[in-house]
Amino acid sequence: MSHHIIEFKNVSFCYPDGTQALRDISFRITHGESVGIIGANGAGKSTLLLHMNGYLMPTSGTVNIGDLYLTRQTRQEIRRKVGIVFQNPDDQLFMPTVYEEVAFGPLNLGMDEKAVRERVEYALNMVGGLELKNKPPHHLSNGEKSAVAIAAVMAMEPDILAMDEPAANLDPRSRRLLINLLKTFEHSKIIASHDLDLIMDVCHRCIMIKEGTVVADGPVSEILTGKKLLEENNLELPLSIQKR
Asked: Which of 80, 116, 125, 211 is most buried per CB count within 10 Å?
């Protein structure tokens, strides 16, 4: 399933103010992989995710999504393949009601009203948010907003799911629902997070970034138990390991 592949080749990115956020990054994610992106604040995690569907374009190097190279001409098609959930749901929610929010993507795909309704109800059920469908998104709690943002992406049935700090605004129950949801998503998923316990629960592979470069890439069971490596990158062992 080549359309589920993400490949970065020698990708660098510099913001207009001169900040070098990514430096010669290369990796390949294949179909069905669950990959955690970890690193200290400012390491480049969010910048990396925003290259996966063309919100940002590389200063140099190439990003390949399936059979498509990311260009300004292909990014609309790539955005149908890669669903991104932003760290701040307010950056993502803009419609008058939750139903309209989740329906926006499927409607843009040209689906008929009945199919859209089924897709919306399915996606909201996945995040336990069906009762929110008639509410304005800006009246919701942070956790509810996050759930709706996730549902809006899932309603597009993306081949690849990328999430930036998905549990940041969630209470413990909502966080557990999210983890269970992510475990059922069978395609490729990439999760950037400081929540290393969530990464341990959901991901099999871990890519660690420091100052815009990949400093480690391997099984979660190795990287997230390496106390010295974590400390060198301003991270701590997952709480579940600390308690052992």
From this structure: 116
Alpha helices in 70-219 (DSSP H): 75-81, 98-108, 113-126, 142-154, 172-184, 196-202
pLDDT the model gives residue 167: 85
Residue 170 confidence (pLDDT): 79
Task: Quote the pLDDT of residue 25.
Answer: 97
Q: 228 φ, ψ to 5°?
A: -65, -45
Torsion 39-89-50-7 (CA) sign: positive
Say how far apart CA 200 and CA 19 lie, in whole Å. 31
Tally of residues, the chain? 244
Residue stretches of the chain with pLDDT short of 50: 1
The pTM score is 0.89
**SS3 state at 17:** coil
| C-alpha span between 5 and 211 (Å, rounded) | 25
Question: Does the domain at residues 2-87+159-237 carry the CATH identifier 3.40.1280.10?
Answer: no
Beta-sheet pairing, 213-219 with 34-38: unpaired
The candidate with the shortest Cα–Cα distance to 163, out of 126, 127, 199, is 199
Distance CA 82, CA 71 (A): 14
Cα 38 versus chain centre, distance: 12
What is the model's pLDDT at position 44? 94
Q: What is the pLDDT of residue 186?
A: 79
Angstrom distances, CA of residue 237 to CA of 41, 173, 195: 16, 23, 10
